[in-house]
Amino acid sequence: MPDGQTIQRMFAEVAPGYDRANRALSLGIDTRWRRRTVRTVAVQPNERGLDVCSGTGDLAFALQREGAQVVGADFCPPMLVRAVRKAGSAPGPRFLAGDTLALPFRDATFDFVTVAFGIRNVSDPVAGLREMARVTRPGGRVVVLEFSKPRVPLLGAAYRFYFGRVLPRLGAWISGARNDAYRYLHDSVMQFPEREAFLALMVEAGLRSPTLQLLTGGIAAIYRGEVRT
Fold first, then answer.
1. What pLDDT is recorded for position 171?
2. Pick from 50, 111, 127, 198: most CB atoms within 10 A?
3. How many domains are contained in the chain?
């Protein structure tokens, strides 16, 4: 797998076409997945939230629309430039550059922390989850939206064909990327621990009572854990 600097450069290069490619490649389903994630967070008015690996801010904006005060952090500044542009002149989340493995916040700063399709890009997922838990108040929530692999045979075969053969080429064409970002997407999803294995990582990171929701036949999953009191 690429190192952190290589991944950072990949995302910087795909930033201009990132949103366009996401909508097209997922047929818009990723928007529905984020709405489901927001419901899982169960935002209360004026809660403080942090969205790590925030990219162009889609989940951060969705959380803010539910009444949260949201900070979006990402280690790739060109992605955050796009997020700020999307906000325009309207009050939006606050975006800043930050590494999920060393978040620039004090302990127990937030009521919840989220990450959408980013935890597999963190070189040490357990350390990343621990850091997310550190900046969340006791009793607060850590919620993760990530790809998974469907286990129904027919759907699984179609998924592997699309993800392995179609998506890397189509993603590069739509986004205008001249690198292997969408091949990396396939490889990282195939290698990343999912379902019960990821729940075990959450427990290892110190999160309590982790739960799992499968989405769209198991193509994606939402994980939720609570910070110990």
1. 67
2. 50
3. 1
